[in-house]
Structure formats: structure tokens, C-alpha cells
UniProtKB/TrEMBL annotation:
Annotated GO MF terms: transferase activity
InterPro entries referenced in this protein's UniProt entry, alphabetically: Galactosyl_T_C, Glyco_trans_2-like, Glycosyltransf_2, Nucleotide-diphossugar_trans
Descriptive protein name: Glycosyltransferase
Keyword Transmembrane helix listed: yes
Originating organism: Thermodesulfobacterium geofontis
């Protein structure tokens, strides 16, 4: 039997996009030994309950009792995947991502089996406004891939733990995770042999609240990870790369719609993070081995009841 794979999908009021995501995985995936784990922190999501009242055996839904960070929900999915499903690989999939070909999981697993040095692998990720990742090569090594779709080796999780839940509610937890993976000795790569579609729209209007959240989490990311030689990452506060596997050259940049708000919120974001500076500095000193899961990856009694 082939190695077990768990697909962890985190959702908050995902609606029809979540249903399309899950349906695309269950309908198209040829790989046999897998299970989809949906972690939804909106327990009143009646659409999800009705749609999957007769849920397939390959689907597990975990409803959280309150709104948690995306990292917290992913970590719960990790714990379930390892402890209950004994998964060797975990695929993180955003709730607004659709699978496009039936061999997507086969292709990702095959590359992970052939390249033992890879800790994280991502496919080509298309979006309505460009590519989050793109390559024509079978394997191309990069510094970072977005968590919209990535496969992670279990041994990586056992070595460094999960995502940092203090990136609340979301934002910058995936580049932070990638940095810790690299520091632990594994490589990060993208592959051109399979692709998915991310239905996000980075040009959508962003509220004042989310402008502050993105700025706050970005400052935390910088304080945790900034090293000499990668100061260019500062520019990601106001602009993002069309292709994450490419550099910060002008033709590869898209200014975020709320860049001016982020600059305005920068002093407040600095203050919020400085209040937690002792904890941040402690994490910074030990980036490659700090566990945001239990050291033995055990599920607490409270979480067992939820699961």
C-alpha cells in the first residue's frame, strides 16, 4: 500500500468555494490512500453540514467551537493526520483552491519519494491575476512557497512542529514556516508537472482592519526572520511578487491595494509586537526546533473531545 496522505483544508465561512475545493479533491484524485481533513471554525456552517451529511469515508470534518487562527486550525489538522491517520505526507490546501488534474497527488508524492531532501513541495499555482508559483522544470528549488497548496513531509513536522499560531488570525505564517524548514536542513521546491487554481483576488478591496492585521503580522515575521542579505523582504509590506519563485524585480511586483494604509499602521504594528518582544526574541534564537505542537505531537483531552 502506498504511503498515507492527508489533505488539511482550513476554513472560516468558506461557503461554496470550500464545497468546490473539497469536491474537486474527492472527484479528481486517483491516489487511493488519502483522506481529506476539513477544519472549520464556523460551527454554524449549515451549508457544509447539509452538503456532507452523507459524507464520504475519505472526508473528516472537525468543527471548532470558536474562531481560531489559521495556524491553530492547521496544527489541529496536523495532529489528527499524524495521530489518527498515521500520514507520512500532509498537503495543506486553502479552501478557495481547486484541483485541476487527477494525478496531482500522485505527482507530488512521487517527487517527494524521489527527492528525500525536499521538505516542502508546491505545484504550479494559478490565480486570476497571475501565478503564485510557476516553473517549467520537474523540480526547481526556491526559498518560499505559499501554503495555498503545499505538501509537507511528516519528518519535517516531527522536527520543527507546526505553524506559529501567534500570526493571528492569518498572514505571514507560511513564509515563517518555510524559513524554519530551511533552517532545519530541508529544501523547498516547486514542480511544473502538476497545477492547481487559487481563486483568490489580491486586487479586491481590503478593509482597514485587514490592513492592520497584515501589517502587524508582517512586522512579527520580520522580527523573527530578517537576516543580513534579505532586507529586500521589507518591500513585501507594500508589494507582492506575481511569481513567488522569482525575485523582487520591478516587473514582478504588484502593489497591494492598501499599501498606504499599511504604512500608516506601521508604528502601531511595531508597538504591538514590541509588547511581545521577549517571546519573539526567544523564538528567533531557536527557529529550527521550536515546536508549536506538543514535542510528542499529542492531542490534549480537550482537543480529543472536539475531534
Amino acid at each position: 500500500m502506498r504511503n498515507k496522505v492527508c489533505v488539511v483544508i482550513v476554513s472560516h465561512k468558506g461557503g461554496n468555494l470550500l464545497l468546490e475545493c473539497v469536491s474537486s479533491v474527492l472527484r479528481l484524485t486517483k491516489y487511493q490512500n488519502y483522506r481529506v481533513i476539513v477544519v472549520d471554525d464556523y460551527p454554524n456552517d449549515e451549508n457544509l453540514k447539509v452538503a456532507y451529511r452523507r459524507k464520504p469515508k475519505k472526508l473528516k470534518i472537525i468543527f471548532l467551537e470558536r474562531h481560531e487562527s489559521a495556524s491553530y486550525a492547521r496544527n489541529l489538522g496536523i495532529e489528527y493526520s499524524i495521530l489518527r491517520e498515521n500520514a507520512k505526507y500532509i498537503i495543506f490546501l486553502d479552501s478557495d483552491v481547486k484541483v485541476l488534474d487527477s494525478n496531482w497527488m500522485n505527482n507530488l508524492v512521487k517527487i517527494m519519494e524521489n527527492y528525500k531532501e525536499i521538505g516542502i513541495l508546491a505545484p504550479i499555482i494559478y490565480t486570476p491575476v497571475g501565478n503564485q508559483t510557476f516553473t517549467k522544470r520537474r523540480v526547481q528549488f526556491v526559498d518560499y512557497v505559499p501554503s495555498a497548496c503545499m505538501i509537507v513531509r511528516r519528518s519535517v513536522i516531527e522536527k520543527i512542529g507546526g505553524f506559529d499560531p501567534d500570526f493571528w488570525p492569518l498572514g505571514n505564517e507560511d513564509p515563517d514556516f518555510c524559513n524554519r524548514v530551511k533552517l532545519s536542513g530541508y529544501k523547498i521546491a516547486i514542480t511544473g508537472v502538476t497545477k492547481v487554481f487559487h481563486q483568490t483576488n489580491i486586487k479586491r478591496r481590503i478593509s482597514t482592519y485587514w490592513s492592520f492585521i497584515h501589517t502587524k503580522n508582517y512586522v512579527r515575521y520580520i522580527l523573527l526572520n530578517l537576516r543580513k542579505g534579505n532586507f529586500y523582504e521589507i518591500f513585501s509590506l507594500i508589494a507582492i511578487r506575481r511569481n513567488f519563485s522569482d525575485s523582487f524585480r520591478p516587473s514582478n511586483l504588484i502593489f497591494v491595494p492598501d499599501w498606504y494604509r499599511r504604512l500608516v499602521f506601521l508604528p502601531l504594528a511595531l508597538l504591538v509586537n514590541l509588547l511581545n518582544i521577549r517571546k519573539i526574541l526567544k523564538l528567533r534564537r531557536n527557529r529550527s526546533s521550536f515546536h508549536f505542537l506538543n514535542p510528542m505531537i499529542k492531542i490534549s483531552d480537550e482537543r480529543k473531545r472536539k475531534i
